[in-house]
């Protein structure tokens, strides 16, 4: 049985997929779950040696679960198309999976975010991304997915490098794609009716969280742009919620 299956979620990722796959080339199996890309993403992934499976679902959990079902290795490593494994993280992963016995069934990975190409975000995130396949039951949640697993968790050394929000066009497209789904989820959860003051509250909260709590001010002008954009993005989500609420009157 091979040791590691890397599972990559993609959509219109022809500019990213080669570097992403190269980043996990140390894995025994590379699986790409592609969301009906219309560009060369699937062909490029196959050419490099990945196994490609199509998914029409908009649920990240469903796509991660498809990868879990297809994987044949003992360990499962999840990575997105705009993420890269650092050398130190690669070493840490190989040490963990190389053990004959392991007291942990899942591992958190520290993730560094980079905005607009090379502006490093001050806050480091933690995500559980490496799993013993036997311990991982499923992923749940439509957009903000959560892994359901049994056993203890540890933290790996090294960083996962996340090159997100590479340009404004990409950011606006992402908001347009996902704000509608976010709004529908809030509607189904019986969110209180939107009023004028709620818009100001969510926008101010989003800016404060990004610029102050996450210390975006340390990223200079990029931090200002990103924080204002987070405020704009949440406004679009709640404006769509307001629109849905009025349709359902």
Figure out the total of helices: 7
Give the termini distance in whole angstroms. 57 Å
Residue-averaged pLDDT, rounded? 94
Helix percent band: 40-55%
Poorly predicted parts: none
Shape: globular
Number of strands: 11
Strand percentage:
25-35%
Rg, Å, rounded: 19 Å
Taken in chain order, the helices and strands follow as EHEHEHEEHEEEEEEHHH
Structural class: alpha/beta
**Largest sheet, strands/sense/barrel:** 9 strands, mixed
Task: Describe the protein's architecture and organization.
With 249 residues, this protein is α/β, with parallel strands linked by helices. It is 41% helix and 27% strand. It is built from 7 helices and 11 strands. Strands 1, 2, 3, 4, 5, 6, 7, 8 and 11 form a 9-stranded mixed beta sheet that branches. It has a two-stranded antiparallel ribbon with strand order 9-10. Strand 2, helix 2 and strand 3 form a beta-alpha-beta unit. Helix 5 (168-188) packs parallel to helix 7 and helix 6 runs antiparallel to helix 7. The N and C termini lie far apart (57 Å). The mean pLDDT is 94.
């Amino acid at each position: 049985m091979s040791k590691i299956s890397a599972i990559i979620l993609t959509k219109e990722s022809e500019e990213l997929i080669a570097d992403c796959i190269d980043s996990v080339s140390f894995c025994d199996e590379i699986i790409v779950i592609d969301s009906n890309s219309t560009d060369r993403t699937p062909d490029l992934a196959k050419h490099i040696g990945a196994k490609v499976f199509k998914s029409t679902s908009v649920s990240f959990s469903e796509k991660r679960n498809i990868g879990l079902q297809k994987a044949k290795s003992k360990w499962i490593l999840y990575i997105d198309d705009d993420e890269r494994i650092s050398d130190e993280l690669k070493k840490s992963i190989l040490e963990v999976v190389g053990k004959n016995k392991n007291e942990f069934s899942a591992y958190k990975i520290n993730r560094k975010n980079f905005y607009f190409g090379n502006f490093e975000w001050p806050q480091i995130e933690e995500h559980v991304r490496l799993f013993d396949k036997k311990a991982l039951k499923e992923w749940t949640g439509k957009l903000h997915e959560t892994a359901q697993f049994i056993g203890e968790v540890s933290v790996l050394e090294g960083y996962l490098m996340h090159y997100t929000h590479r340009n404004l066009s990409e950011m606006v497209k992402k908001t347009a794609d996902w704000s509608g789904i976010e709004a529908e989820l809030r509607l189904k959860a019986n969110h209180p009716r939107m009023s004028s003051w709620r818009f100001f509250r969510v926008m101010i909260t989003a800016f404060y969280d990004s610029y102050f709590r996450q210390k975006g001010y340390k990223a200079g002008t990029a931090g200002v742009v990103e924080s204002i954009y987070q405020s704009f993005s949440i406004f679009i989500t709640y404006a769509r919620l307001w629109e849905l609420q009025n349709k359902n009157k």
